[in-house]
Design goal:
Layout: H1 2-11, H2 16-21, H3 27-37, H4 43-55, H5 69-104, H6 109-123, H7 126-131
């Protein structure tokens, strides 16, 4: 996957250094930034260097925010765990309760309604149910 993203990003038009510094950057500052980012190296060497660093635990730095990528991922992972925990706290008791109601009222309106809502929820894509 990383190789695919790397190849596609290499095929995109434009220069990363100009994107970061802007159109008014001088050739000298562009050359310095390209050297700092390793953009003067051949693409296969840049990828292998990144891959070896990643395998050692160095995922690199964000070009936009100038912070280590691992810090960005960890901060967002913590948020994801909070959201997943809240979802479990809500959905597990709700599911057990609705399952009990459907089992106790088997064949009646409540059972059919709960079953219909459950099957509809499974049929919807996750990006739709995630909004709810």
């Amino acid at each position: 996957m990383s190789l695919g993203v790397f190849v596609v990003s290499e095929l995109l038009p434009g220069d990363v250094a100009i994107f970061i510094l802007g159109q008014s950057a001088t050739p000298e500052t562009l050359a310095v930034l390209r050297a700092q980012l390793g953009l003067n190296e051949p693409a296969p060497l840049r990828y292998v260097t990144w891959l070896l660093g990643f395998l050692r635990g160095d995922s690199g730095r964000s070009l936009a925010l100038q912070v280590p990528i691992s810090d960005l991922v960890l901060s967002r992972t913590a948020n994801s765990f909070v959201l997943a925990g809240l979802a479990l706290v809500i959905t597990v008791p709700l599911s057990i309760g609705l399952g009990l109601i459907a089992a106790l009222r088997q064949g009646r309106f409540a059972d059919r309604a709960i079953t219909l809502v459950g099957i509809s929820g499974l049929a919807l894509p996750e990006f739709v149910t995630g909004v709810f």
